[in-house]
User: What shape does this take?
Amino acid sequence: MIVFSNALLALTLLSVLLSLASHRLVALVKIMAFQGIVVSLVPLFLGHHMTMGSILMLQVMILIKGFLIPGLIYVAVKKIKIRREIEPIIGYHASLFAGLIFIVVSTFIADRIHGSLHGGQVLLLITAITTLASGLFLLMARYKAITQVIGYLMMENGIYLFGTALAKQTHTQYIVEFGVLLDLLVGIMIMGIVLNNINSTFDDVDTALLGQLKD
Amino acid sequence: MLEFTCLIPIFTGVFAMFLPVRFGRGILVVTALLHLQLTIMAWMGKVTPGLPQYFAASPDGLLVLLITSFVFFLVSIYAVSYMSETEMTSEPIYIGCTLFFLASMSMVALADHLIVLWIAIEATTLMSAPLIFLHRSKSALEATWKYVLICSVGIALALLGCFFIVLAMDIGNVEVPITFSSLSLVASQLDPMWLKAGFIFLVIGYGTKMGLAPMHTWLPDAHSEAPSPASALLSGALLNCAFLGVYRSHQLLYQAGLGDFSSNILIGFGLVSMLVAAIFIFNQTGYKRMLAYSSIENMGIIAFGVGIGGLATYGAMLHLIHHSLIKSSLFLSSGNILLGYGSKLINKTGNMAKLFPKTFFAFFAGFAGISGFPPFGIFISELLIILGAFQQGRTISISIFIVALVLIFAGAARLVMKMSFGKWDEEILVDEKMARVLPSYALLLTSIILCVWLPDSLYQTILSAIAMIGGSVNG
Assistant: This one.
């Protein structure tokens, strides 16, 4: 079972790297949907005892992270007709490289802290920190409002993984699950984008102009 | 049932969204009055929380609740007059959202559970965002976007901080409810490393909301783009609520014997915020932005005072009260100025002393107050913070503190003088009205009164609030 969870974590890491290097927004949204599903599945394979409540919570997580939010973003992308991030603040290759550096750094950090955790799995911590850092990075390194939201979503996935890594599963109190409330914020942001037709946050690029660039 | 302070505004807010405008205004004022009444009853100990596992009437929370409620009441009186003057297009949304905003701020003040506090602070972001976007202009949109995005990142990091604190409980084998009151009893058994990590994330998260530099970038935009009554609430009430989150975390660390660690972080953030404000205030072109930077400075002062400890903590708490009173008064006056001149730019204003005598008086007095002149309370609070810092032998930090204060005064004075006595020949658009000046006067007057006469219950509450982090009036 543990091995299966490692496979999931490897997939998460892969999706993080893919998202850092992807030009097209539609592809990015698909990657995020994939990442959302994989991340929500991780707790299932950690070998913890699952109660009825936590299994139910898992379904909700998959539904929100894997379908609802990516679906909303997809609608937003279609509606405001942007296909690619034209001018990222930090280029794709540099972003990919930064992602690799995050993995190295988080391996170092995870190595330092996992000793103090009960049966903490190193790979889980590494993935969590990398996802968190890459999300923050994506948030800062892109102009488009929608990509910033995607970065935020990724960061949130990282926090969720972190929570799963840290939480003692025998804990009777729900803590990690409150991360769902962050999705509420994401939802509001997407709503804002759709309703107000935000294309680029700081420098309002003409949407019609962007629509001319067909793939 | 102290929770009614949250529930009443929610109910009335929903009503106000659907009722015609003229009812909405009445509802706003009546709810504010009810809220103030409930808060005073809570202060007298007549109302207690109905859900003690989530809410508690802690002294620091009560203090913030009282300030919020009082400021909200006066701002709502102002808002009624302001709204009739500006013909806001989405007035029901404004009224509904301010009431929801009040509810979420009350929830922050009363929250005892770690996660409830977090949810409440997240709710304040959600509820105040529509207020900033009210004018629907391009700049308002940008300000709102920045506000929501940056504060959301902050709130996400704060959640991580909460995880870490729960982890510190797990490692220390502590099984108690995750409330601040029960954690404080077992604080010494928590794992220090994770507690520290949790504190850092909580300070970054809630500090973003509080406007501590370098996470302050949303604040000048949001506070200047929001309509003036909303700015007054954002500056006078919301910042305190975010501060409460930071303060509670500091309490927890102090009780765990890690007070030095968290104090130093707070002092660092405080000084950086003051310096950043001092640098940016110098060349401000808009007066609302100037006030917003002044808020950053004052939040820095409060963080600094709390970090220093001892007598300075008392000063910080006084500063919290007086900053809210004076700054919301200033924002209300700035609303009058905006109505009168039709511009947020300092260059497009002038000769207020002649054209706007009543507003000028409130604005100038407020400026004197915020700069730390007697008879306003900030004079005392800053003096106490400086004295407290000298008692602790923090000479380097205190010299930075004083330099920043002087710089900010110099920078702001230049702008205020220009607005008050500069040349202006054109006509003004909207004349000042008593209903829009009196709330400012009332707020300033309260600051003066509290400076010379502090009611005993208020004094005792401040003392018990600061006793939790080892502060006292005797140094």
Summary: Chain A touches chain B at residues 116-118, 132, 136, 139, 145, 148, 152, 155-156, 159, 162-163, 166-168, 171, 173, 175-176, 178-179, 181-182, 184-186, 188-189, 192, 196, 198, 201-202, 204 (CB under 8 Å).
